[in-house]
Amino acid sequence: MQRRQVLIGGASLFLAPAFASAADLGAPAADVLKRDAVAARAVLPKQAPKAELLQVWTGPYGGVPPWDKVTAAKLREAILEGIDLQRAEIKAIAENKAAPTFANTLVALQMAGEPLDRAMSVFGVMTSNIGSNEYEALDTEVSPILSAAQDEITFNEALFKRVKAVADGAAAAKLSPQQTRVATRRRDAFVRNGAALDAAGKAELGRINTALSAAFTAFGQKVVGDERGWTVIPTEAGMAGMAASNKAAAAAAAKSRNLDGWVIANTRSAVDPFLTFADDRALREKVWRKFVSRGDNGDANDTNATIAEIVKLRAQRAKLLGFEHHAAWRMQDTMAKTPAAANDLMMRVWAPAKARVAEEVADMRKIAGHDIEPWDYLYYAEKVRKAKYDLDQNELKPYFELNNVKQGAFYMAGRLYGFEFVKLAKGAVPVFHPDVEVFEVKDKASGKHIGLFYSDDFARPGKRSGAWMTTYRAHSTYDGPQNVLASNNNNFTKAEAGQPLLISLDDAQTLFHEFGHALHYLSSVVVYPDLGNTPRDFVEYPSQVHEHWVLTRPILDGFMKHVETGKPMPQALVEKIDASGTFNQGYATVSYLSSALVDMDLHTRADPPTDIDAFERDSLARYGMPKEIVMRHRLPQFNHLFTSDAYSAGYYSYLWSEVMDADTWAYFEESGDPFNPDIAKRYKSIILAPGNSTDRAEAYRAFRGRDPDVKALLKVRGFPTS
């Protein structure tokens, strides 16, 4: 699916410098940073961590995670000790007798918990990318403990008073713009998370947060449990219509499970190709039903009761904090600000998307000769695509060999932003799985080291589904320069040994999307870690825009070459893709947007539902969901919403970000050069590099000279713009 989204906004134009440095963004001078770091260190107790996984990372490239030393038992030991060490540091900051200053309070808070942060970086990878029974048990045990430890910090009255004093006195203390932003955002986050509640309120909020943490863990593990399943296709006739590369991957999946025949794993990367190309309608339905019923089978992995508990707890928390519902609480620190603003955008797109679905279904019925069911949609859409545009998706796959696609992404990063990616030899640094490749990232012009990029491309039992980006270490300079350790994680099914792994155009765009997240972090000039993360409805924008470069001519000519002929994709085929660019956008938009609408519907209720399946059905009926399409993420498997609060009342953010993405791509296109060096430099310096050091709405205006135009999004999707 193409992930595309809107900024509607108000504030005066922010005239940032053309090429921002940390100093340009209002950071204090180097000598001030050094002085503040020394003062902050003096506040913190001198503690020597005992656990192996709490130690400062050693080795090359500024130190790297010791993946070769990780076990679940060692992680448990590290996390529990790390919480104790952090608790002692917070106590020292809160009980400091000296008057609160930015250095002895805010900088010290940035430093507090560094050993625990290292352990948690490892913990996140082992639970997401490895996910054995041992790590699931560890996750279940420590998640509530970690939640309670965070609440201890938020509910510390003495600490909050110090933070508030620094933020309220920022002007009098002549804090720099970045220091002021750090202090005020910390103060506001404390309030938003319950620091101003009375003792009884804090106790109740602590109970809610601990229960939520346990429920999030349980939900994620249940979905992964269902995704460990598969469908066996016993005869080759059942694979009729599938590309040779897909058949080979399914055969390899069967072999890896010691099964005969072909296996369609219960993950999107395996299911979607089958639904798109397999001729056997009954088998398509079987595979589809297994996939869309993840978490909804009335067994040990059923998530409905867990969801009901999560939404009940969220509603209780919102009410306790003085908000009408969870969405109102969750959206304070976003660009949209309110559910109404997000809904306005979604409904503007929903109507034309549904109208387009009706047209798409009519075209498919002419070919199928029967009503279109959800397991038919992708299959007959391909037939229509072939008929209308003489374009077969299987015709494209030989041009998208996985390693070549990655090299194309690296070329894009070099051409736009001056990055160079150099593959490290096996064993140069530890990795958490033999499949992981590691690349050093350098500045091409100066040769300066920027960081490492870890690439984990393949599905495995226990690994969570989908594609995502994470960092093990982000850039900052407040306590000396820190380089970036970034990773991309995919779920491609391995090809047979010695065979090329061919992926779809959609997969290639997804790879560029996640790589865009990595480029965001690798471009950072952020001084303080607190300013590294942007609002949820901005964070997808820098990733989504990079999808557009997949089909640019320099990348096609240099990297997307046919695996058999070695020739680049001919322009005639590119023109077919361009001509069909808005094809099936009804399906793509409705499947995504229905999930976003139901998310917002669920989280704008003061009294949340208890029957989750019934709520999903009723919500979709109210929106007039076409019967031929299912939500991209049904509630029982909606990891975005129920493994954390991160995307709850926030799945709309892909659409919000797509408005900026589409408008930005239009900017490059209008210049006549998709690699326009001046626009690329400004994009890097104003949009990517500052993180959240400046207001992101103002930053967009500085980059584009105006607010983004929603018409660019409608045009990209082929919908009416009036």
TrEMBL record:
* Coiled-coil boundaries: none
A Pfam family name for this chain? Peptidase_M3
Cofactor names from the entry are: Zn(2+)
Cofactor binding annotation: Binds 1 zinc ion.
Leader peptide range in chain numbering:
1-22
Please list the residue ranges annotated as the Peptidase M3A/M3B catalytic domain: 275-716
Q: Which UniProt keywords apply?
A: Hydrolase, Metal-binding, Metalloprotease, Protease, Signal, Zinc
InterPro entries recorded: M3A_DCP, MetalloPept_cat_dom_sf, Neurolysin/TOP_dom2, Pept_M3A_M3B, Pept_M3A_M3B_dom
Q: Which SUPFAM superfamilies match?
A: Metalloproteases ('zincins'), catalytic domain (SSF55486)
Record's keyword annotation contains Zinc:
yes
Q: Output the Gene Ontology terms for molecular function.
A: carboxypeptidase activity; metal ion binding; metalloendopeptidase activity
Q: GO cellular-component terms in the record?
A: cytosol
Q: What is an annotated GO biological process for this record, any one? A: proteolysis
Kindly indicate whether the keyword Signal belongs to this entry. Answer: yes
* Family affiliation: Belongs to the peptidase M3 family.
- Can you name this protein? Peptidase M3
